[in-house]
Each structure stands twice: as C-alpha cells, then as structure tokens.
Amino acid sequence: MQVKPELIILQDPSEVGHAKNSVRLLELVIAETEIVVGETAEDFAGLRQRLALSNKPVYLVYPSDRSVSANETQVEQDVILLFLDGTWRKAYKLLQLNPWLLEYPALHLDLDNASNYTIRKASRTDSLSTLEAAAMMLKAIDSEQNISPLTNALNAMVEQRLASMPAEVRARYR
Q1: 163, exposed or middle or buried, with CB in 10 Å at 0-12, 13-18, 19+?
Q2: Which of 62, 103, 109, 112 has the lowest tally of Cβ within 10 angstroms?
Q3: pTM of structure
Q4: pLDDT confidence of 155, banded at 50, 70, 90?
Q5: Whether the predicted pLDDT of 169 surpasses 90
Q6: How far apart are CA 158 and CA 56, in angstroms?
Q7: Considering its fold, how many domains does the chain have in total?
C-alpha cells in the first residue's frame, strides 16, 4: 500500500515482541513505515536530527489539551506523522521522557465508534491500536485514501487470535 505521509512509530521497547503488536502488521501493509524503538531522548537522537533537517511538516498524533482534530483541520499529504506505540501509560511515559515531541503540533482523531482491536484490553474508551490510529489519520488527511488493506489485516489478526482461544477466554473479548 502506498501513502504520501511518512509514518514514524516511536515504540516502547516492551511492545517489540508482543504477540498482539499491530505495528508489525502496519509495517507489512505499508513497507515504508519506520519504527524507532526506545524510551529516552538519547534513544531518539538520530530521529530528532533527521526531523530537524526535514523540510516536511511534522505532526505528533496524540490527543491532548493542545491537539487539534485531524478531521477539522487541513493537513497536507506530504507530511511526517509521529505515533507513540504502547499502552496509554507507556505512550504517556514516552511523551514525558521526550519533551522535544511537544515542539511539534499535535493532532487527534474524532472517534465515531470503538476500536476493532478487541483482543487487547484498554483502560480508555478512546483507545486505538497504532495501526487503527494510522489508518484513521491517513483517511482524515486524504478522504480518498483506501485504508481497507490496513483494516482488513487487523480484522484478520483479531479473528485469528480469537479463533485460537478457548471458548471461555474468547467470550471475554467479544
């Protein structure tokens, strides 16, 4: 799948080997996706240098008091989108350990319905997998963008995981 925006995932190290990692799927569908694993500013030093030298606008995709809705603002297609990958707690920790991320304008998504990523429990109702957030952001930037390869891949993974669970366990995820 080809997309105009550059997708860069700042991934908490604990997510790398996680069996339910949606970023792995994202990378399979959009090969140009870049994943940078780390926690501290030192871990992301090379990325920071590249971003500083880039002539493309950079946006942090993270809901906050200062973020603006991607659905209600005009964002060019030739941009760099930064996503934080981890649980809400880990994503927040990444943000706290990397205040340089706050130098970039932040975007959030207006959610019409809950996540389809039902195999992973979330403490917040507005939780999305990183793959879902990327798909929705791509669609918000370009309404013509076909995101079905992403959503189909996620749905297939969820169904495969659910099918492999014992019935009593599977019932907790439906």
Answers
A1: exposed
A2: 112
A3: 0.83
A4: confident
A5: no
A6: 35
A7: 1
